[in-house]
Amino acid sequence: MKFYSDDYEVDLDDHKSLERRKKLLREIIPKKAVIHSTSKSSSKERFSVRRKILTLCAVLTLFAGCGGAGSREFDNGGPIRSESVNSSVESKVSIVNPAGEDLESRIMAPEGYIRTAEEKGSLGDFLRNYKMLPDGSPVMLYNGKPRTYDASVCVFDMYLGNKDLQQCADSIMRIYAEYLKTSGREGNIAFHLADGSLCDWNTYKNAGSSFESYLEKVYTYAGTFTMQDECVKTSIEKLQIGDVFIKGGSPGHVVMVADMCEKGGKKAFLLAQGYMPAQQFHILKNPLHDNDPWYYEDEVLYPFTTPEFTFPEGSLMHPTYLD
Question: Domain ranges in the chain?
Answer without folding.
Answer: 2-63, 74-319
